Amino acid sequence: MLIGFTIVAAPLLFAIVNAAVQMNRLSVRSQQLVVHGMQGTRNNQRMFEEIGGLERQARLYQVIGDAKLLDVYASHHARLVTAIQELLTLPLDEASQQGVRAVESKANQLLQDLRHAAPNSTHMAELIGSFPQLSDAASNVSDRISLQIDRETASLELATQHAQQNLVWQTLLLVPMTLAVVGVFTFLFARPIRAIDRAISELGRGSFSRPIAIQGPADLERLAAQLEWLRSRLLDLAQEKNRFLRHMSHELKTPLANIREGTELLMDGAVGELQSGQREVTAILRENGMKLQRLIENLLSFSAWQAKSVGLEVSEFKLRPLIKSVLENQQLTLVAQRVRLDVQVEDLTPVADRSKVRLILDNLLSNAVKFTPRGGTISLHARAEREQLLLDVMDSGPGIPADERNRIFEAFYQGKTPQGGHVKGTGIGLSVVTEFVNAHGGSIEILESKSGGAHFRVRLPLRPAVPATREKAHAA
Questions:
Q1: Looking at the domain 2-179, which fold is it?
Q2: What is the C-alpha separation between 44 and 389, in angstroms, rounded?
Q3: What are the C-alpha distances in Å from 385 to residues 288, 459, 461?
Q4: How far is CA 441 from CA 161, 310, 352, 419, 423, in A?
Q5: Which of 467, 460, 463 is nearest to 316 (CA)?
Q6: Which residues, in sequence order, are CB contacts of 352 under 8 Å at separation 6+?
Q7: Domain 2-179 matches domain 311-475 at the CATH topology level
Q8: Rounded CA gap, 340 and 334, in Å?
């Protein structure tokens, strides 16, 4: 990851450093141009002022003839030479330097000539006439310096534009390059991360069959190795759980069969007629024996389905007799709880696994009986809709809290709502329903009930294709 971040950041850092260097160069150059322009302008002004002073002193000396005026002239000349020397320190071109030296040479020559010329002489008048020529030479120097500053200013503008263009092109090149590098590393990181996310989701759903093998950065490979160890461990635990369930269920079925057989013998009067109290106790034993049998069958079905050893035995059957048989098995409990039934079943002939559909109905009805209060109502509706069988099981109980609806189909999960009856559930009834519904290619959902109780709706295909059914059964 550090290497990836470094490679992604390198072009951007290069662009930032390059822009900073170019801006610094332009700034220094601009600052030097401003300083040189100000110095040149100041020295040009001083040069004109001193030349004017020289001319005034020379004219005064011509009229008055006082030797002290020559000393004043010499001081003006010294300041003129100082301004000229400062001009020569500037980065002037060759023509400007020659012009400055020419002004200096003429000024020096005039100083020498004035010292040897007599006041009010013809030679003195000629010397006085030379000052305009000196002024013109200084003007030429000033013009050349101004032109040089203008050229340097234009050159600076061109350099600035060139730098801007370079920065624009660098940006246009670096942005897609950086995006490409980001895309490459995102792909390199995203693929194993998505694989890890998918593996974690499968572990969360309880699917441990697919090995976890991920190729990518070393850190992610180590994480994948830890997930693979966790998957193997969870798979071992799931297999141990299934073996335990199968063994315990089989062990429980044998004594339960004896209890059921003995109860039936008592009910049939094989050992003599029973009194009313004895028959009532025997009916209670029979009812709870049937409940225990359903719980054990759920355990066996869940264990076998988890072990991928049970498929669907598809056949055509009548739905009404099947529902009637399921209701008869629950009759004693319904009568004892004084529960009213609202049964509306169309005359349908689905093609499905009859025993699995029976368990679906039996578990949904048993779940409704558990939570329906005494004197309540349970509704069981079945109808056809668009080549599908719709089964609605509704009760008038407390309903299913919203925070539990996503978990009640999990194996061994029991909600917080208290259950009725003497035999508590195992928490796998709805899980078995979900497995069998999915195996048929159907679905189960929880709907809002007008009465406030639970409302389960199961959708099953009426005429599924046999190969597709078997494939979905295997996938489930």
A1: Four Helix Bundle (Hemerythrin (Met), subunit A) (1.20.120)
A2: 106
A3: 37, 9, 10
A4: 70, 16, 10, 31, 32
A5: 463
A6: 312, 314, 315, 317, 389, 440, 460, 461, 464
A7: no
A8: 8
pTM equals: 0.42
Contact by Cβ (8 Å): 345, 324: no
CATH number of the 311-475 domain = 3.30.565.10
Per-residue pLDDT of the chain (476 residues; tens, 9 = 90+): 677 677 777 777 787 888 888 888 888 888 888 888 888 888 888 888 888 888 888 888 888 888 888 888 889 889 888 988 888 888 888 888 888 888 888 888 888 888 888 888 888 888 888 888 888 888 888 888 888 888 888 888 888 888 888 888 877 887 787 788 777 777 777 778 888 888 888 877 767 777 888 777 788 788 888 888 888 888 888 777 767 766 666 566 667 777 777 787 777 777 777 777 877 787 778 777 777 777 776 666 655 555 444 467 889 999 999 999 888 888 877 887 888 999 999 999 999 989 889 889 988 888 888 888 888 899 999 999 888 999 999 998 888 887 777 777 776 566 655 554 443 445 567 877 888 888 888 998 988 877 778 899 999 998 875 444 444 444 44
Phi and psi, residue 449, nearest 5°: -100, 140
Domain 206-310 fold: Helix Hairpins (1.10.287)
- Residue for token pair 């959902």: 445
Q: Element (H or E) spanning 353, and its range?
A: strand 351-353
Which two structure tokens, joined as six digits, stand for 423? Answer: 């035999």
Alpha-carbon dihedral sign for residues 13, 14, 20, 21: positive
| CA–CA distance, 23 with 155 (Å, rounded to integer) | 15
Report the candidate in 197, 200, 216 with the shortest Cα–Cα distance to residue 208: 200
Residue keyed to tokens 């002290």: 68
Residue 161 three-state SS: helix
